[in-house]
Amino acid sequence: MVEGCYHPYGINFFILLNFYLLATSVTVYALEEFQASASGAGFASSIFVLGAFISQLLAGRYVESYGRRKLLLGGLTVFFLTSLLYFPANSLALTMIVRLLHGLAFGVVGTANITAAMDLVPPHRRGEGSGYFSLSNATAAAVGPFLSLFILRHADFDFIFLSGLLLALAAFAAAPFAAVPETNLTADERKALAKGFHPRYFIEPHALPIAGLMAFVGVAYSGILTFLNPYAIETGLVEAAGLYFVVYAVCVFVSRPLFGKLQDTRGDSAVVYPSLACFGLSLLLLSAADGGITLLLSAGFLAFGYATMISGGRTIVLKRTPRHRYGMANSTYNASIDSGYGVGPFLLGLTVPFIGYRGMFLVLAILVAVLIPFYYFGHRKHQTRGGL
Fold first, then answer.
1. Which of 20, 36, 82, 102 has the most neighbouring CB atoms within 10 Å?
2. Is the pLDDT of residue 295 over 80?
3. pTM to 2 decimal places
4. Which helix (H) or strand (E) element contains residue 350?
């Protein structure tokens, strides 16, 4: 039974806006308040992703057997409380602990919420539905960093934490009214979900082929998130870089519904190939940018590339997964992308002293190009009309 009338899209927007607002502020906070090293400040921000990675794998298994609504409400309660804990955390170590707990709650909420959202969409329109759901991601990704920079110019870090707390409260307040369909498990399905703690009981096998590809997509995107600002400073493109994710978000509102409908009517490959090509072109333009126009063109192609792959990949995974395992499928998919986000900045940072930012973006463009034949040879045998 579906309770409530409020769609999970809104909850997704509030928790992601909380994430982006704090992710772009905590590094500066650690540097200025605790005189942390650059690596320590970066870890204070990225440890959030580690928490999300762990909890997504655990929540994916229990979201169906324990109940989507219970897990959503429980996760949002912890998400709100950890947003409150930023105020008394008076050392770098305590801030890192809060970030880890915050990430754990974020992973639980995200898994329960997106599982409910995707189950509300009719199977024949899942590509379109996934595209619309992801619009909340793009909006938060554009508004969050902008809001963070605006607040830091006109207020202090306490106001940043207060804003994050209010966003967490908004998500919590919306949850009781959210439409959250539950799965009526059979005795055999419930027994299968109640097995031991072997890794195979937390990972959805149907999700692994696309999830593995998306881990590399996550690595490539993390290069843009992490190194766009220093690259812009080095090349004198700071003003254009300030509009990069705004242009990205605007283009996403065009690309995701359009490609979602295309995936539903023409099949998955009709979306995967052009998406990877656009993502590679975005990175290539970024590596060669010598002016603001080229940089912002990269942002546009990023929307048609990376953003489309995120929603399109999820649609592929859910098409191949039994309904009672949607939670595990979503958590496996999200955790794979997050693993790319987590290791990407470290690995790519090692290459910058040797090949520079331009060289790094060029290497990432080549990496994305290699994913095209990887998809072709690894998944073509599964391809059917409207499927992989």
1. 102
2. yes
3. 0.76
4. helix 326-379
